[in-house]
Write a structure and sequence with these properties.
By secondary structure, the protein is α/β, with parallel strands linked by helices. Helix content is 55%, strand content 14%. It has ten helices and six strands. It has helices spanning 13-24, 38-48, 63-73, 88-97, 109-120, 128-140, 151-161, 166-173, 177-191, 196-206, and strands at residues 4-9, 29-35, 52-55, 78-83, 101-104, 125-126. Helix 4 links the parallel strand 4 (78-83) and strand 5 (101-104). Helix 6 (128-140) packs across helix 10 and helix 7 packs across helix 9. It is elongated, with a radius of gyration of 18 Å. It starts with a strand and ends with a helix.
Length: 207
């Protein structure tokens, strides 16, 4: 069986060692790089190109800043944030930077393994607690019912929720990219979302 290669970057040595040990005890995974800063994350991405990169938000150089560097150096790597931060803005910022998942540090080894497998399959993973907070945040900001969307807007949102770009949505629905952008403008207004990531989280919660 081919093992999933993982990079673990966290500036708390004991926590990092615990994550590494937990993953190594499961036959699915092999940790091929460890670090404590965004610079370390970039080096691991460049030298090892892991399937998954686990990043903390709070570390030297900044976890959010590291996401783009990791993806630029190793485009096939999936970034999964592993953090104590329960700030919705931090969650949205991480997803906007390109992270495929956001997991809180209270997660057990099975939960972490599930999150890794989910993002490797091409889907986003957000800890249930954070999904609920993002949803509550959207509702407090005056989001509308999804039933106000037109059938075409629903089709667009289904693809947005899958992580597709405007270009790829256009190809899938046989629409020009500018038409997709127009639909997104209308969708964000109707849902009361500030960006497509927030809209996608809200959409998945309501389905």
């Amino acid at each position: 069986m081919t093992q999933i290669t993982v990079g673990v970057v966290d500036d708390h040595p004991l926590f990092r060692e615990g994550v590494t040990r937990s993953l190594s005890e499961m036959s699915d995974f092999v940790v091929i790089g460890e670090g404590a800063s965004s610079e370390d994350a970039a080096m691991i991405a460049s030298n090892n190109r892991p399937d998954i990169m686990l990043l903390d938000v709070s570390m030297p150089g900044g976890g959010l800043a590291a996401i783009g560097n990791v993806l630029a150096l190793s485009p096939t790597t999936k970034v999964l944030m592993l953090t104590v931060s329960e700030e919705v803005d931090t969650l949205l910022g991480a997803l906007q930077e390109g992270a495929m998942g956001y997991v809180l540090k209270g997660v057990g080894s099975r939960g972490l393994a599930e999150a890794i497998h989910t993002v490797l399959s091409g889907s986003r993973y957000v800890s249930p607690t954070m999904s609920a907070k993002a949803m509550e945040n959207s509702l407090q900001n005056g989001s509308s019912d999804k039933n106000s969307l037109t059938p075409r807007e629903r089709e667009v949102m289904d693809l947005v929720a899958q992580g597709l770009s405007n270009k790829h949505i256009g190809l899938r629905l046989n629409l020009q990219e500018k038409t997709v952008k127009h639909h997104m403008t209308q969708i964000l207004s109707k849902l009361g979302a500030s960006n497509r990531t927030e809209a996608a989280l809200q959409w998945r919660e309501r389905r």
